[in-house]
Amino acid sequence: MQNQPIRIILIREKKLIELHYGFLKCRIKENKLICTGKVKPTEHSKEYSIKLVYNGLDVPRVYVTEPEIEYNDDIHIFPKEKNLCLYHPETDDFYWNFRKDNIHDTIIPWAIEWFIYYELYLITGKWEHPYKAHRVTKKESQ
C-alpha cells in the first residue's frame, strides 16, 4: 500500500502532461512515469527525440534519445546518465520541488528551452543561458 501515494502522483503528472503536451506519449510502468516524444523548439531547429522518466520521488530526468549528444563540460548534460541539466538546486530560479511543482509547467518547458540554448551553443560555441558552472573532473565522469 506504500506505493499508492506515489502512483497517485504519477497518474496526476501523466494527465497534466497529456493535457498540455500532445506530442508526448506517456505510460506508467514499474512505478515510473515514462513519456516519449519529439521536440522541435523552433521551425528552423532539428527534431530531437526525448524521454522523460519520473518515479514520483526523485527529480524527473529528461534524456535525448536521438540524435546522440556527446557530453562535454560546456553543455549542460550530466556525464553519467547524459540527462539534461535543467536547474541547479542551490538557486531560486529554475528549481524543481516535487511538493509544489508539476512537470508540465516546469521540467518540460525548461527542457524545450534547453534545446534552444543547445542550438545556440552549436552556433556560438558558448552556453548562452545563465548557469552555475559544474565542471566535472575526469575521475567523476568515469
Overview of this protein structure:
This protein has helices spanning 4-20, 107-124, 138-141, and strands at 24-29, 32-39, 48-54, 61-66. It has 142 residues and is of the alpha+beta class. It has a 4-stranded antiparallel β-sheet, with helices on one face. A hairpin with a 6-residue loop joins strand 3 (48-54) and strand 4. The longest helix is centred in the last third of the chain and has 18 residues, at 107-124. The model is unreliable at 137-142 (pLDDT under 50).
Describe the secondary-structure layout.
Elements: H1 4-20, E1 24-29, E2 32-39, E3 48-54, E4 61-66, H2 107-124, H3 138-141
Antiparallel strand pairs: 1-2, 2-3, 3-4
Which tags fit this structure?
alpha+beta; 3 helices; about 25% helix; four-stranded antiparallel sheet; about 140 residues; disordered C terminus
In short:
The chain has helices at 4-20, 107-124, 138-141; strands at residues 24-29, 32-39, 48-54, 61-66. It is of the alpha+beta class and 142 residues long.
